Amino acid sequence: MSRSRGIRSGASAHPDTSKALREAIGRGHDKPGLVCVLVPHQRDRDEVTSVLRQSFPGATVVGCTTAGQMHWGSYQDDIVSVVSFAASECVAVAERADGMSSLSLKDGYGLGMRALDRLRAQGIEPNASSCFALSLLDARFGNEDVLMTGLRSALGDIPLFGGGASDGLAPRDVAVFHDGAFRQDCVVLVLVSLRRHFKVFSTHHYRPLPEDLIVTRTDARHRVIEQLNGRSAGEEYARVLGASMAELQQSDAWLPPMMVKVGTSYFTRGVARIDQHGFLHLACPVSPGLQLRLGETTALIESLTALEQEIREEIGEPELILGAECLMRRVEAQSTGQLAELDVWFRRNRVVGFCAYGEQYRSMHVNNSFTGIAIGPRRTVSRRDEEIARLKSENERLRRVVDAQREQVDRVMSAGSDTFGLFQNAVLLEEMVQRRTEELAEANRKLQGELARRRRTEEALRQARQEAIKANQSKTQFVAGVSHDMQQPLNAIRLLLGRLEHELLSSGGAKAMRQIDSSLQTLETMLKDFFDISKMDAGGYVVSPSTFRLGPVLQDIVREFQPQATSRNLKIKLVDSSALVQSDLVMVQRVLRNLLSNALRYTPSGRVLLGVRRESRGVRVAVIDTGIGLPEDALTDVFRPYFQINHPDVVVRRGSGFGLAVVERICTLLGVRIQVRSVLGKGSNFSILLPYGRREDLPRLSEEKPQAAIPTPLSGAHVLVVEDDRAGQEGLLALLEAWGCRAMAVGSPEEAETFLMRSDTAPDLVICDYHLGLGKTDGLQVAQQVAAQAGMVTPPVVISSDPDPSLRRDITASGALFVGKPLKPARLRATLASALQTKGAGKI
User: Fold this and answer.
1) What are phi and psi of 74, to 5 degrees?
2) CA contacts within 13 A on the Cβ side of 639
3) Containing H/E element for 829?
4) What's the rounded Cα separation, in Å, for the pair 647 and 568?
5) How far apart are CA 215 and CA 653, in angstroms?
6) Which of 11, 105, 111, 130 is an S-S bond match for 71, by CB 3.0 to 4.6 Å?
7) Given a cut of 80, is residue 268 above it in pLDDT?
């Protein structure tokens, strides 16, 4: 469940409806002011009703059935979502009108007035700056336009948004939740006074084509256009689209909407299908004589980016966007391959919402739109704000007085009177208007002064916020930038320890060296995780997705951790898989390593399972242990940095406290949601869902036949080290000499060139630090130049403390070998041996 002080949202895909809803509710507010529940249409509604009655007695709870939802990321068909607002954040009232199929303008107006009266009864005067309205309705009856017009008459300028409950492109069994039950053939109106900044919006990404299409015959009751321009509606639609009607009838793909002009703006009318008679079935009411145009799609993501900019300029970064998106937009995104980009946008802007059958915005019923409310930080209502609100209210009151007096004059003039009476009324009116005009001018003067002071304050706050953002970015960039220098001494210590392994030490000395090695491992892990988090916060990581086989990745990870498990009498079980997935391979490996390491650390006895399960939306990879488990109140805190569980059974070396924080940040970059389930004393289950990959996207294997590796011992090998850090030079030289190598170190490209010119023996191998000359020199380029000048047939070895996965990919793609700092002697030795074996095999 995502949390802020006043707004919480949660979701669950558990197959058991009751458990899914309870997981989504999580640790909700003790006193919620409003709860909104989005339920897949196939879920058991009786179970939902039972859980909601138990969980929120006396609270305002509304919701509807859906044909798909968004929860901080991708579209999902089977999740139950819950959004709750604390009573300290809002006051909400909900009213219902039954008989949606026969609602009139009067009914819509009455529904709005009842909601306004209930809010006033709680001491709140409804206004457009602090109130909004939400509509949830049964959209099967085509009466939305009448309803919206009636509601608008009552609500005035209070912004409204909403959507139709759905179960597919042709809704049959939809329902709205209100007053403790699911109901049909009704509309629910929620009026909310919110103590936060917000923006109600609606956006679409279509523009009208130039040709007019006049509706000449309809079946209005069923929202069907039979004729356009006096011809078959389907034929005319297909002609303008540049396709045949038969193709459109047979295709399951999304169909472009129609557009109607109201005032100076165009609004969409979604096209659901073309039937066998050539009739167009729309998602909005139509009538003969209506002038339509075919909608041409523009850039979907660009339109959302523009909306995002508007939202952030108006209210700042949104803490939540609650939205209703037309089901046909989802169909379009799937047809055009834009789902992944759409998911990223939803996640970045914390979108929770549902696929609706038609959307409502202010007084309009629209289609093919994304409509909702963006909720920002809490409003601080100062005395000055209250005074501005009072002045605005007084301004509005005076305006109404003047308008009423003018209407009175019109009535008197039209009714007729004697000359004196007309003169008397004119004099009295002039005096009244003069007094009211003076009062109005004074109120406006005060209001303008307050607004000017407020603008100055807001500008100062904006500048302070920008300075804080710059300071934070400077901090993260500084930490990421100095990581190389901070790891140089650690690298030297690691290399010297490796050298000591070849010395004959006393039992006490050997024990002390093991303790030093253990402490050094802890420090290296902490620094690596700390630098990774800093670099992620600074935006320094780039996701490089590819398609790969999951099985070999899991097998390698299990082999890597098997010795650790064996030493602690634990079993690691692998559920293998032949599945193909699409993601960033290096980042996925990092996530699974951190999860498996964490599981082994907190499992005193038993086993750890690395399991795989295929689901409709991807491959779920889970790390399940029989360890100490987590208390329920720690399921969210476990991803915070430095959070660790203290338990008497955990006697192994504790971790850095960053491992799961790194996992969560990587999952956010990958667009992957991490799930955690745990029972205290029984174990935990951490899992991620990876999208399926396509076989045709697998990288082609080289057709070159592998040549047998020819063992080449390190003893006697000539190695040139290019390293500008003195401690790093000495550590590498000591370690290489212990392995029997003939090693020479230089500190710059110029020194390397001089050495090669004067040396009688060319080196067999070059080891080069990537960051030379305070990071101004490209070590990979230097290594390649040295190798070429010396005529080497072995690939150069590049070492670096930079944690960016893209750097490693670039180095290995060039044909060089990569070893990360702090250097592990065993890994460095294996890499050097591999390079020399490549020479023996005759490969360049």
Assistant:
1) -70, 160
2) 17
3) helix 825-840
4) 17
5) 76
6) 11
7) yes
